[in-house]
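In response to reviewer comment 3 from the previous cycle, which asked for concrete evidence that the modeling workflow produces usable outputs, we include below a single protein chain processed end to end. The sequence was submitted unchanged, and the resulting structure tokens are shown without manual editing.
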Amino acid sequence: HLYIAWTDFLTINGPTYPNVTKFQKSTDGGATWSEPLIIDEEFADDGGKAPWNSLIQVVNDKHKSILVFCRVTRDEIGGVDKIVVNKSKDGGNTWKKIELPYDYVYQVARDVENNITIMGYGSQIDVCVNKSRDKIYIVNYDPRFTTNGQSGVTITMSTDFGETWSCPVPVNPKHLDTQAFLPSVAVLKDGTVGVT
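The workflow returned the following structure tokens.
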């Protein structure tokens, strides 16, 4: 089976319209696709600005659950983002929304000598699944541990298919004074996790 998810930006129609995450699946190798299904909505705040679901990723576990990850962001330096997992256990027909219980500060990497942005996207996430050990990992822009509030990367893990999540920890605990950005994560069958 093939799966795709994306953000449909509807705020151009007015501040009360949500930005929505949609999902489609193909059971014939991509020849035909299901009708788009809305699996998440993010409405505008009191100021009329709707957040958007960025960097959506779709994974599945060995139990054939489908998990759609996204970082809900307002694209503001110092603003508070959240990570959301939409999970389906029935092939994408019904969905459950799970919010990670941690706030993430939107931050970008900067050239400290010239004080200019060198990476303008402050809400990057990456996801991988160790199907043999039932673990899911997320790496994420997160400056909470850095010494000067600069761009940093943390990792968090789920051992119950996305229902609950560990506390974020820095991926470079010995170098918290060094910027980290554009995170990616991979895992071997033996459980070894690599982050770049």
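The radius of gyration is 17 Å. We consider this sufficient to address the reviewer's concern, and the full set will be provided in the supplementary archive.
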